[in-house]
Design a protein that fits this description.
single chain, alpha+beta, Immunoglobulin-like, 2 domains, five-stranded mixed sheet, about 40% helix
């Protein structure tokens, strides 16, 4: 009996210790600051998810600590056993409640953000194409004509990273950069995401932007940056041995600074 009692109390204490550690880790500030308009909604959804699941984490560990600590003191024969029907309800009810609170809340908070993130951007949005390759990002601006030039897989080379067709008139003023994306603050930015090899994941953590780049697809997302500065463009999907060095930079600038920078960029001339 003493051995069972000691083991039960030790296990109850372990549950409480895990609970305390989880709370300490959860309440410390570890989210990066929100740098986009839609990111406020994403952050709200994340905080709600952590709060809802955290509540069940706390209640579950307190219940486990109580049950183990109390009933470990009794002989096995005297521990009350509920009926099979009652056991099923005890298992099903918390799962249904958690699904309703956690998943239902996420849908209620997340669907409006989803509609904005993947919806039609405003007419004044800046459109930029970002293509993932092992192991760098190719950024393309359409130039003064506002149209992207034609690309072809057979034109891709070390000197032509997206396969831009120089015979297309619309391609002659396109600006192509590597690992460098410039956008103006306060203006919607539409990003057309592509991949030339395998799946990559375009991630701007401060702006709560994350979207896979899938070969054969052009995926559109948009956001409005609301803070200036230099931020990391990360690949958030393991894409090979060089994944660790697939890193670019996002420069959010004042509108006048961005316009001056863009005017100074030389058009890319393909093969």
């Amino acid at each position: 009996m003493d051995g069972r009692r000691g083991s039960g109390i030790a296990l109850a204490v372990a549950f409480v210790a895990i609970l305390a550690m989880g709370i300490i880790l959860a309440v410390r500030p570890w989210f990066p600051s929100v740098g986009s308009d839609h990111g406020v909604g994403v952050q709200r959804m994340l905080l709600y998810t952590l709060g809802a699941t955290g509540l069940f984490f706390i209640l579950g560990h307190l219940a486990l600590a109580y049950v183990v600590g109390r009933f470990s003191l009794r002989p096995v024969a005297k521990v009350p056993r509920p009926s099979g029907r009652w056991e099923r309800w005890l298992a099903l009810a918390p799962a249904l409640l958690m699904a309703l609170l956690a998943e239902g809340g996420v849908l209620a908070l997340g669907l409006p953000v989803w509609g904005t993130y993947y919806g039609i951007p405003p007419e004044d949005a800046l459109t930029v194409e970002v293509t993932g390759r092992q192991f760098f990002w190719v950024v393309r601006y359409p130039g003064p004509d506002g149209r992207f030039g034609r690309t072809a897989p057979d034109l891709v080379s070390a000197d032509n990273p997206v396969g831009l067709d120089a015979r297309d008139p619309a391609a002659r003023d396109d600006v192509v950069l590597l690992n460098e994306l410039h956008v103006p603050v306060g203006r919607p930015v539409r990003v057309l995401l592509r991949s030339l090899d395998i799946i990559h994941s375009f991630c701007l953590r401060e702006f709560r932007v994350k979207q896979d780049c899938v070969p054969g697809m052009t995926i559109s997302v948009w956001f409005t940056p609301r803070t200036t500065g230099t931020f990391e463009i990360a690949c958030n999907h393991i894409c090979g041995l060089g994944h660790y060095r697939m890193r670019g930079f996002l420069y959010v600038e004042e509108a006048s600074t961005f316009e001056q920078w863009l005017a100074e960029q030389a058009p890319f001339v393909g093969e």
